[in-house]
Amino acid sequence: MWTYMLRRTLQGMLVLLLVSLVIFALVRSLPGDAILLQLDQAAALSKADLELARQELGIDRPFWQQYKTWMTGVLHGDLGKSLTSRKPVSQELGKRVALTFHLALMALLVALLIAIPIGIASAVWQDTVTDYIGRMFAILGLSFPDFWMATVAITFMAIWWHWMPPMGFEPVWIEPLKCVEQLCIPAVIIGARLSAVLMRMTRSALLEVLREDYIRTARAKGLRERAIIIKHGLKNACIPVVTLIGQQFSVLLGGAVIVEVIFLLPGVGSLTLDAVMLRDYTVVQGAVMFFATVMVGMNLLVDVSYAWFDPRIRYR
Amino acid sequence: MYSEDIQPQTAAAAAAPRRQRTGVWTMARRKPLGAISAVILCGLIATAALAPVIAPYDPYRFNLNERGLPIRLHAPDARFLFGTDTHGRDVLSRIIYGTRVSLVVGFLSVAIGTLGGTVIGLLSGYWEGMVDHGLQRCVDTLMAFPGVVLALAVLSVFGQSLANVILVIGLVIAPGASRVVRGSVLSVKQNAYIDAARAAGASSWRLMVWHILPNVLAPILIIASVWLGNAIVIEAALSFLGFGTPPPTPTWGGMLSGEGRRSLETAPYLALFPGLAISIVVLAFNMFGDAVRDLLDPRLRTR
User: Fold this and answer.
1) Which of A15, A145, A276 sits opposite B233 (nearest CB)?
2) Where are the transmembrane segments (chain B) (predicted)?
3) pTM of this prediction?
């Protein structure tokens, strides 16, 4: 188990290193730079002044030197300074990571609350009206793009109910009511799509498990149907569902990017978009490293959880 | 000695003979929803091909009133069935022409993505060891980026154009596709006929292309049909964020963004119709993908 974890962690670090190289190269190939886009009066500045400004930010040095400086900083927990706000990137990110995590976790909660019961019902009453309604719901959920639902939701809330989600984010442990009020609609929108994917997986995984011999044994020894489905069926159907949650986490964060922009939520997603537009290299790098770390961590967590769900699985 | 090597037949291998018997009518009878979605998709392809004939107006023209001013935000009526946008262009005609971008991007990006994924998956699954490790870490790297952020960064670097949008969506699809193909290759490789072919002196190249590839085709087709809907949503999302096919080319995502979005309170139909168009196409692709998966995947067939 521990050797397996160590190997997977090392692999994860290698992936993060590759991500850092790719994003570092990618942002530096964006046309224009922070100085040109930031200063309206850039045209009025002389070439020498522009060079001086670039020198101050350190974006005039050769690629590898810049990378080395940045990477040394990252390894010491310093993500550099934003090229636009001049504040430390970790400070900029810190404020917004909380919101994005709130949003992602709430969306995941919404998705699970919808997907698991419907998935179970759909599998238990296979090929009945319940099953058809459940599957129809899932396929509909997949077909409405989140940015469209978000746009429509915002417009109609404003027109019909004259209600807008409150501005300015507060974490749930400080102002729980405001936080939920602010994030519930975006979370439902992101969660709806995820729930459709998860429901389909829950249904097919449970169907597969319910045909296993040990389920027949459980029935034969006279266990109640509910106990069979929940204790014997569901726990064993969890592996593919959990794998899917791990894979879909990137969809969750990606969906968060667009929904954050539409709902004007100050999360990591909207920060990243703004930073790409403003060529704020350090912020883009920091944000992408955040996303990548979450993804790598999620996948590791998912793999480790297999052993808990299925004690037959042992890692070597 | 071979008997021990024979694994339960994979989904792919078992599906091959079955496929020949699934004619159009058999499919229509067994999968009515799949058949309906196939009809919708044929209709969409016809719409895209015949756009100039079907569209009531030129999608780029600013329709003018008697005084020579653009008919801005005209509510839907008999003359403009879906109304006009902020520039006085006919929304229905723009949606009809928008079908072209969505379908072209959908089909081409999925083709590129699954082709790339298949090549990587084949190489990675066939040669385990260093090649596999190297390729899989590259796939991990691509998968560690949130799709939207990767797409935006790449599009900002290489510029916005239809071709780049297609390539970028292909890039987003390829890693996931390669994983599926790799998994199937690993299981197909266990079959005795692969050993037999190798013993008969087949080269690695020949084994991969003639013996393994045909047997992993079913899962590839399944992911491809499932991804078609996703690709169209990604295209629409990119256009919505202003990174898709540049204006004035009509795209469904583009029609939902910018001025269309700002004038939503006065003209809600501006968001309604392009959004519905996206949903109908994606719904049709999803139902079609489900039907294809059920027909090709024997494990799901009885469900």
Assistant:
1) A145
2) 35-57, 103-127, 147-174, 216-243, 269-289
3) 0.81
Grouping H, G, I as helix, E, B as strand and the rest as coil, residue A301 is: helix
Give pLDDT, residue B260.
67
Residue B158 belongs to some domain of the structure: yes
Please report whether residue B198 resides in a domain: yes
Q: Tell me whether residue B89 is in a domain.
A: yes
A284 has a pLDDT exceeding 70:
yes
Tell me the pLDDT band of A166, cut-offs 50, 70 and 90: low
C-alpha–C-alpha distance, residues B89 and B97, integer Å: 12
**ipTM over cut 0.95:** no
Encoded amino acid at B108, one letter? L
Q: A205 and chain B: CB distance < 8 Å anywhere? A: no
CATH of the domain at B91: 1.10.3720.10
Write out chain B residues lying below 8 Å of A204, CB-based. Answer: 300, 303
The dihedral region occupied by A135, where left means phi > 0, alpha psi between -120 and 50, and beta the remainder, is alpha
Enclosing domain of residue B250: 50-61+78-300
Terminal alpha carbon distance of chain A: 6
CB of A30 within 8 A of CB of B156? yes
**pLDDT digit string, tens, across residues A60-110:** 677 787 888 888 877 877 777 777 777 787 888 887 888 888 888 889 999
Residue B237 contacts residue A258 (beta carbons within 8 Å): yes
One-letter-per-residue 3-state SS of B133-168: HHHHHHHHHHHHCCHHHHHHHHHHHHCCCHHHHHHH
d(CA A91, CA A98): 12
Which chain A residues are Cβ-neighbours of B153 within 8 angstroms?
23, 26-27, 30, 276, 284
Give domain status of residue B169, yes or no.
yes
Q: Is A130 on the interface with B (CB under 8 A)?
A: no
Q: Is A58 exposed, middle or buried (0-12, 13-18, 19+ CB in 10 A)?
A: middle
